[in-house]
Structure formats: structure tokens, C-alpha cells
Amino acid sequence: MKNPTLISGIMLVLVAISMATVFNAAYTSNGITFYSPSTNGQVYHYGQTLFLNASAGSQYANDPVTITITTPSGVNVDLPPAQTNAQGFIIETLGTFGQGLLSTPGTYTIAVSVQAPSPLGTKTGVIQVVYIPAQATVTIEVLNGETSTPLSGATVYLYNVTNGVHKLITEGTTGPSGTVTFTVISFNFTQTFEAVAMSSGFVNGSVTFSIVGNQSVTEVIKLYPAVLTIIPFMVMQNGTVVDASSVNAPLTSVVVTQGIPASIIVKVEFAGMPISNATVQASSAYPSLVKVLSVSPITSGPYAGDYNITIEAMVVNTTSAPYEVALTINASYMTLTQSNPLVVQAYYNSLAYLQHLIEQIQTEINSLNSEIKALNASITSLTTSLSSLNQSITTVTKEVNTLNQELITVNETASGLSGTVNSLETSVSTLSSELSSLNTTVSQLKSQVSGITPLVYGGIIAGILGLIVAIIAIVLVYRKIS
């Protein structure tokens, strides 16, 4: 059973709260007074709870209430049925911004309908609230990357790229100071944004940054002119740097020693960024000759991505006065081309030149030594091969001698067989003569047999008849005896 005293106490507290809020700001719509939210269009931020505290009047006590929330996207959501209290107040917790129904930033419309019996009937009050999670201020400064001066009139696009999404939020144009400022909706968790700047004659630039809550962020984007730049910045001879400058102040004239190969290190940039896939060519114009030089990309070491131009100034004089070589460096990238002149001052340095000649001779000696070693190895290999061949020849000779002995034996055997064959031939000849004589005798016998044949056949027949008569006589005698 419920405690009447406790219920009365709670009711008094609610009445006190209700009476206290009467003196606060309120908004009335169609006979329903809203104390929370207290103004139409009240702003809420992420994590705040939306409490509904409204009064329909005491005459609407304990009546059913329908609450409908229309989201920023226009969807109507009916909340579970509610009821006014004994004083006609509607007190409900509608949710927390940033969660569930109240997740989407924008304007929410809350319609509260109280149904009472006739004659009061139904009345509906409407109030709107605005959900702005947080407001972050983003300032983008766009500068000329080569001069660091502000770029006015540049277009800046701001994208939300949180969790891989790439959604355009807003865009703007930089003013005389090269800056543009955006106000964006933010939350109490980290979001990632990307700003992309564009300006005619420049390559696009971008910057990525993060924002949490009501943060103010300033980011700088440097745009570089869409041009190709050739920057000679170092010269080396015999592994030693003989001339150098900074990248911001490229060499226009270099000094080399006649007769010694020199490496001119060149950087090629597009829109202020080094590129390693440009096509680079170079030629040198001597007083009486134009020579195409060797250009190769550098793929490793501290100058990887740069280009090495090899030039060797001919030894023209042995005085201290230099002569000039007009060097031209050409580069192409995509549809752009660029040419850069460079003056080479070629000095004669007898000590350095002699040292270089000695190094060349030493290199040649080392090369010859390597070749001699290789030849010695080849001779050793050939000697081994010859020794092996000699052994093979000795073996073959022995086998040939053995075959010769076997051939002699075969010949001797063949000679013995020849005598036997002769003897057999004589015997065959004798047998042939005898066979011929025998054939003659047989022929004679055949003639004789042919002559006596009728007489013989007659005698045989007579004999057979006599024999038959004798047999018959014997049979007859045998019967008589029996």
C-alpha cells in the first residue's frame, strides 16, 4: 500500500518546482506554457539533456498527453504516451543530444497535445529547439610558397574526412590578408578535416587537421607557382666539393679544373617540390665545339632524387687565365619545359691535373693488373686442361695399340681360314665332278629302266595271278580237310 504522506510530500515538491519555474522565462503556444525549453529556438549542445516542463493549466490535471518530435530531416516520431500531473504539468525527459533520436544537428519541433473531456477538449502547443553540437572556428591562411606573401582570391574548400568520409562542408575565398574563416559544427570527440586551396597559376595545396569541441584552429597552406625550376647547387671533382650554393640561391657560374671530370648536382622542382622523374639534358659550348653531356638520375645517398651532370673541361691552356664553357641545362615535365644557363669557368691547375693523370694511370695499372690476374687464371686453367688432354691421348694411344694387336691376330686367323677355304673349294670341285658323273650314270639307268618296264610289269601281273590261284586252292583244300 502506498504511503499517503510520501505522495503528498512529492506533490508539494513538484508544486514548488512548478511555482518556481513560473517566475522564470517561459514560452506559450496555444494555451500550453513551456518552461523547459523556455524559449522558442533554444540552442542545445552535445551531451545536454532535453527536459520537457510545460503546463496546460490546472484544469487539465491527470489528462493524457501525446508528444511528437519532428527531426531536422522531417521525420515525425511519437513518444510513449504521457499524462499531466495533478497541477496540469507535463514533465518528461525527451533524450540527450548527440544520442539516439537527438543525434542529428539542426532544428527539432516538439508538439505537445493534451486531451481533456468536453468542454475543455484538446489543445496542442508547439516549440522548437536547435541542436548545435559545438562550434569550432577554422582559419585557413594561403601563402605564395616561393615568397611567403598572402594570396588573396584563393578558393578554399573544407571537407570533413572523419573515418574515411570525404564530405564537402563549406567553401570560401581568401581576402587581402590571404585568410578565410569558417565556423563548423563540432563535437566532444575528434573529427578530421581537410582544407584544399586553389588559385589560378598555382598548384593546388591542402592541409589536414583535427578538431574537438569549441576549438579554434589556424592552418597555413602554401601554394607554389605551376612552373618548372632547375637548380644547380653543387660541383664536385675528385670527390671534393669545389663549388656550392643554397637551393634558394642556385649557381649561375661554377669553377672547375681543366682535364678533370666534374659532377654538377642539379635539383629539378615543380611547384616548389622536388621531382625525380623529369627529363633532363645538358650540353656545353666550348669555344669551337658543342658537346652533349652525360646526365644521370641519382638514386641513392644524400642527393637521391637529384641529377648528376658530368662535364670534363678540355685542357686548352696552361696559364692561370681560365676559359669559359657555356653550359645549357634543359628539363621537361608533363607539358612544361624549362632551360637554365650556367657558366663554367675552367682553370688550369698543374698540380691537380698531374694528380688526376697519376690517378688515371694508377686506375689503368689496376685495371691491367686485374686483367693479368685474369689471364694467369686462364693460363692455369688451360695448363690443367692440356694435362688432362695429354692423359686422354696416352689412354687413346694404348687403346689403339691394343686394337692393332687384335687386328694382327684377326689377320693371322683370316690367313688360316683362307687355306681351309681353298681346300674346301678343291673338295667342292671334286664333288661337282663326281656329281656330274653320277648324273650321267643315273641318266643311263633311266634309259635302261625305260626299256625293261613293260616286261617287268607283265611278269609282276602274272606272278600276282598265280598267287591268287594258289590261295584259292589252299582254301579249297582246307575246306575238304575240315
From TrEMBL:
This is Uncharacterized protein. The chain crosses the membrane at residues 455-478. Keywords: Coiled coil, Membrane, Transmembrane, Transmembrane helix. It comes from the Archaea. It comes from Stygiolobus azoricus. Residues 351-406 form a coiled coil.
